[in-house]
Amino acid sequence: MGTKERRVREKKVLRGKILDAARELFVEEGYAAVTMRKIAAAIEYSPTAIYLHFRDKEAVINAICDTDFLKLATRFRKIAEVADPIERLRASGLAYADFALRHPNHYRLMFMTPHPPHSPEESVIEVGNRDQDAYAFVLWTAGEAIAQGRLRPELDDAELVAQIVWSAIHGWVSLRMTKCNEPWVDWRPQKRSIEAVIDVSIRGIARTPPEASPRTTRKGKG
Amino acid sequence: MGTKERRVREKKVLRGKILDAARELFVEEGYAAVTMRKIAAAIEYSPTAIYLHFRDKEAVINAICDTDFLKLATRFRKIAEVADPIERLRASGLAYADFALRHPNHYRLMFMTPHPPHSPEESVIEVGNRDQDAYAFVLWTAGEAIAQGRLRPELDDAELVAQIVWSAIHGWVSLRMTKCNEPWVDWRPQKRSIEAVIDVSIRGIARTPPEASPRTTRKGKG
């Protein structure tokens, strides 16, 4: 391998190390308390070395957001082929919760740690492109469910529907992460509980409760 | 006023100051980063002075949890008289969100900031007493809804029902607090949005969608 290729590869590896260390520090200590110097110290590099990759802390958080939100969008992309928008909504809820449980530090930084907003101008992610923008994926699915008359007629706003479903699943994930040791609460098993949360959301927005559907159809024909 | 009364009053005021300063520090810097010395400095007292009130940082967080969870339970107590358990669930959801928006720092520390669990042994709150324990209030309401046959038959576990409804409302509150400046999301107006979140949860758990109720009854009679 040539010197140039080696340098490109090494640069990429170091960039990944910086992002991983910074993600952990931001989650542990809060965005405000972390400095470029602390990030450098965590990976045993000089501050100068990391300034070669990122001009400041904001560039670091933007790069982490890009990487992590693309990772989530990639999970969603795999379920884009689910044709039924209600079933796609259910699948994306499960994929979202699974992503959170597999990557708790990513999740904490993405959705639970205050930091400067992820600016679309500074991002490699194209806003509204559902292959890249995970929120756009949910918005698209909610919009299809509305267009196909699957939701209660008063829920005609895809943005509101997306925010309702997102709230329920984020609430479940984040309470589990923050309050899991709370002795006041007898937490129910994870799988049963997240499936119930998603099911309740979907029944709550749907025009016809899923299991009542065939009966209604038959009645309509008879 | 006698010297003793003055001392008791002063002690109470100082205790409140310590708790307010500590709550803010825990939320801003994270539980781990805060020391008794920092809390003392925030109110311009010597560390010795605050050790007269609290033996350590854990005693401080326990006292904050007691105060703040009792405050929430007091909000719930006012709606205990709502006889219909479904309407009481709706009212407690609205009261919970209102509490969070009015006392964001309290809320952040209670539900969004990792810290040692609030030990029932160290607490003045009686676990399971719905006048004092806010979670027990929701559990009681969910249990009544189940006992009256108001929920879908598969939702026969009050603990699970309480966790589902709590997740939805906590998710809405906490996303608003953490991601409100996110340019990717077009947040819908607060009032409309929290009412929709609660309505969707209740429709999702209820046996009969509220507005379909009279029709079903008529059909049953005819």
Written account of the structure:
2 copies of one chain form a homodimer. Chain A is mostly helical. Helices cover 67% and strands 0% of the residues of chain A. Chain A is built from 10 helices and no strands. Chain A has helices spanning 3-29, 36-42, 47-51, 57-77, 85-102, 104-112, 134-147, 158-179, 190-205, 213-221. In chain A, helix 1 (3-29) packs across helix 4 and helix 8 packs antiparallel against helix 9 (190-205). The radius of gyration of chain A is 21 Å and the shape is globular. Mean pLDDT of chain A is 92; it is low at 212-222. At the A-B interface, helix 8 and helix 9 of A face helix 8 and helix 9 of B.
| Anisotropy-based shape of chain A | globular
How many H/I helical runs of chain A?
Answer: 10
Secondary structural class of chain A = mainly alpha
Biggest beta-sheet profile of chain A: none
| Arithmetic mean pLDDT of chain A | 92
- Report the order of strands and helices of chain A: HHHHHHHHHH
